[in-house]
Amino acid sequence: MEEVFIIPVVVIGLPWLILHYITKWKTSGSITSDDESLLDELYQLAKRLDERMDTVERLVSADNPDFKTARIMHDREIDNAPLRELEELLAEKKGTQK
After folding, report:
1. How many domains does the chain have?
2. Mean pLDDT across the chain, nearest whole number?
3. Where are the transmembrane segments (predicted)?
4. Domain that holds residue 3
5. Which of 30, 44, 80, 94 has the fewest CB atoms found within 10 Å of its own CB?
6. Is the separation of the CB atoms in 63 and 57 below 8 Å?
7. Is residue 38 part of a domain?
8. Other residues' Cβ atoms within 10 Å of the Cβ of residue 78
């Protein structure tokens, strides 16, 4: 009588359990559409905040000629390389989705 319960558990239950957790493991590493839209919103917010900081720094430098910023500048090539790479990746991603 024990074989009636053990054989289906080993033949059906164990592979199902293993495949279930393999599927969970594979999908946990991928980004969802909600995550992607949140990242896009955060990226747009960061760009707007950067523009605001540029405006504030421009106003402060107009009042004080000795003012020097300690942050990443938008007009320096070395500072724009990672941002340009990110924008290219986003454009490529949006191009493949459409």
Report:
1. 1
2. 82
3. 6-23
4. 1-30
5. 30
6. no
7. no
8. 8
Please indicate, yes or no, if residue 80 is contained in any of the structural domains. Answer: no
Q: At what angle do helices 77-97 and 33-63 cross, to 10 degrees?
A: 150
Residues 9-37: tens digit of each pLDDT: 888 889 999 999 998 888 777 777 888 89
Residue 59 lies in a domain: no
Q: Is the pLDDT of residue 98 over 50?
A: no
Handedness of CA 59, 62, 67, 69 (dihedral sign): positive
Whether the model pTM is above 0.85: no
Query: What's the CA gap between 67 and 58, in Å, rounded?
Result: 10
| Residues shown for the chain | 98
Give the separation between CA 98 and CA 91, rounded to whole angstroms. Answer: 11
How far apart CA 77 and CA 51 sit, in angstroms, is 17
